[in-house]
Amino acid sequence: MAAPIDTEPTAVEPLGRRFVALFASTASSNLADGILLVAVPLIGLGLTTSPLQISLLSAATWLPWLLLGLYAGAVIDRGDRRRIMLAAMALRMAVLALATTAALADGLSLPVMLGLLLVFGAAEVFADTSAGTLNPAVTPRSRLAAGNGRLLGVQQVANQFVGAPLGGFLLTVGPAWAFGGPGLLCGIAIAFIGLGMRGRYRAGDHVAGARVAGSEGDEPRATAELTESLPSRIREGLRFILGHKVLRTLVITSSAMNLANTAYFAVFVLWLVGPTSAVGLTEQMYAILITTVAIGAVLGSVLAEHLLARISETRLLGIVWMTNSLLLVVPVLVPNGWVIGAAFVLVGFTNTVGNVISRSLRQRLIPDALLGRVGGASATLGYGTMPVGALLGGIVGETFGLPAVFLGAVAVCLVFVVYAILRVTPEVVARADAEREVRPSDQS
Fold this sequence. Notes:
Helices cover 79% and strands 1% of the residues. By secondary structure, it is an all-alpha fold. The chain has one domain (17-204, 224-438): Growth Hormone, Chain: A. The N and C termini lie far apart (55 Å).
C-alpha cells in the first residue's frame, strides 16, 4: 500500500501584538515624513530656484547619517533600543514644533530650514536605527520577510500615497500646518511604542520574536562603561560588515545607488514643477505624482513574499535593481506627467521588493547583539553618500543642466547593479547562512 500523503497545512506563525504596535508607530511616523517629503522641497522652491541651493535641503537631511550613524549604532547596542527610539521621536516632535512656530512668525528662510533639517535628521538616525533592531526582536524568524514587507508597505502608503497629497493640501492652507500636522503624528507614534511595546529591549533580550528567559533580571550597564566601550564597538561593527562577503557587497552597491538617487531626486522638483520646467506640473499635481510610487510600493510589499517563494532572492534582487535603475531614464526621454507616473508605479514596486530582500538578508545574517552597531555602520556607509550625492546633483545641475544629473545617476546605478549580481550569488549567500547558523553565540 502507498504511504499516506500528509495534507496538513504548515502552520504560519502570527506576527504578534508587539509587531502591530511597531507597525502602527511606523505608519504614523511615516505619514509625518510623507507630508514633509512634499512640503519641504516646495517651500524651498518658494525661496530659491537654484539647483545647488535646492540640493542643500536634501544634503542637510542626510548629513547626520554620515556624522552620527556609527555612534548611534554603538549606543543602540548598549542601551534600551525602545527608549532610545522614544527619545529620538520626541526630539523630532520638538523640532517640528519649532518649525511650526517659525512658520507662524513668517521666519522660514533657507538657513532656518537647513538648521531644522540637520537636527531633525540627527533624530532620524537614532529613530530609524533603533527601529531596524526592533523588528527582528518582535517578529518570528520565519516571518521576517513578511514583517519587513508589511513595514515597508505601510512606509510607502503613509509616506507617499497618503502623506504626499496631504502635504500638498496642508501647504495650501499654510506652512505652519505642514509642520504642525507631522508634529502631532510623531506624538501618536510615540504613544504606540510606549504603550504597545512595554518592557526592556536591549541586545539579546529578544530572539526571533520571543523574550529570552532571565533577560528582565539583568542589571543595566553603567554609563561610564558605555562611553568607554563605544570606540571599540564602532570598530567591531565596521569590521563585521567589511569582512562579510554578502553584506560588504550589498553596502557598497546600496551606497553607490543612494548617492546616484539622491543626486537625481535632490533637483527633480525643478524638472517637474513650474511653468518653466520640462514637465510643467503645479504643486498639487506634483504631490499626486509622488503617490504613484506608493501604489507600486504597496504591490511590492504584498507580493515580495510570494515572489521569493518562486524566484531565488539573489536573482530577484538583481532583476528589481536593474529594472529600477533603467526606469529612471523615463522622465528624461518622455517628460510627460502621465508617462512618468506610470513608470514610477514600477519604480515603487521594484524599490520595495529590493528593500524587502536586502533588509531580510541583513537581519538574517547579522547576530542580534551586533544589529545596532552593524546597522549603524551600514547606515553610515550607505546613507553617508547621500549628502555628497545631493551636493553633486546640485553642482552638476547648475553647471551642465538637469538631464546630465539624471542620466549620470542612471549610469552609476547600472554599473553597481552588475557588480552586485556578479558578487552575490545563491552559493555565496548559502555559505553565509551556514556560517551564521554555526556561530556559537550572539553575545557581544
